[in-house]
Design brief:
Number of helices: 11
Order of helices and strands: HHHHHHHHHHH
Low-confidence stretches: none
Distance between the termini: 30 Å
Largest sheet: none
Strand content: under 5%
Radius of gyration: 19 Å
Oligomer: single chain
Length: 253
């Protein structure tokens, strides 16, 4: 257990060693709220005050989560594939996937601080009497969504490691995740927004945590789906990692 916690601490220290990057994440979230909210509100009639209020609240939540999600970052292990340091992962007794995943979980925690403060601000903005409980559930769901996002990102980059390029896979994953997680347009605005679009895994990284804070989704149902998707992606990542990188077990392979 301590060895696994040590991997998370490594990721945490790595993220904290770049304070300017953390500050830029917070700035990005604030700017994204201003821009996205303005664009969406331009298409909503002024008399639809409740909808406009809900859209601003939603944008605040997903923008905060988006600033810290692992889906928008290249996992640490990918640089080791080209700089000759990948052998360090084989020295440790933990599985390759566990090392990749736990490092990203640790690195995610400080990056999620803007999301925490923004979601608290969103709850205050809403002014609902059960705001404290919603804050706890919303932040908890956002963190679990971050764990899901880390499993998706790590598994995706394991599957695309053969390209030996990060730019293409990163652009693809960021584009798809932004579209399907609600960071570009609320998923409820999609045609059939209450059906398949809310059941796919990316929805549980940002859209559903935001809806929990807004009181539109059940914490139990969302948490169950997040755990299920995380286990599924982790299982795929673990199997592929052990087979895909088997030839790298020899030094210099």
């Amino acid at each position: 257990m301590m060895a696994y916690l040590a991997l998370m601490r490594m990721g945490l220290k790595s993220a904290l060693s770049f304070p300017r990057a953390l500050a830029s994440d917070a700035l990005f979230a604030v700017l994204n709220i201003a821009v996205l909210a303005s664009l969406l509100l331009a298409f909503i009639p002024a008399e639809a005050k409740t909808l406009r209020h809900q859209v601003v609240l939603y944008v605040m939540c997903v923008s905060g989560i988006g600033a810290g999600t692992p889906l928008n970052r290249i996992p640490d292990f990918t640089t080791s594939l080209t700089d000759g340091t990948f052998v360090r992962f084989h020295v440790r007794p933990q599985s390759l996937y566990s090392q990749f995943y736990l490092f990203e979980l640790g690195a995610m925690l400080p990056r999620f601080m803007p999301a925490v403060f923004i979601m608290i601000g969103a709850a205050v903005f809403e002014g609902h009497p059960s705001g404290l409980w919603r804050i706890v559930c919303g932040i908890g769901s956002a963190l679990m969504g971050g764990a899901l996002a880390a499993s998706i990102a790590v598994t995706f980059y394991i599957l695309t490691a053969f390209t030996k390029r990060d730019s293409g896979p990163r652009a693809l994953l960021q584009g798809v995740s932004a579209l399907l997680s609600g960071q570009m347009v609320p998923l409820s605005f999609w045609p059939g927004g209450s059906s398949w679009i809310t059941l796919q895994p990316f929805a549980y990284t940002a859209d559903q945590p935001a809806n929990i804070l807004m009181g539109n989704s059940s914490m139990t149902a969302v948490l169950g789906a997040q755990v299920l998707w995380t286990v599924l992606f982790s299982a795929i990542g673990m199997i592929v990692a052990e087979r895909h990188f088997r030839l790298r077990e020899s030094v210099g392979a």
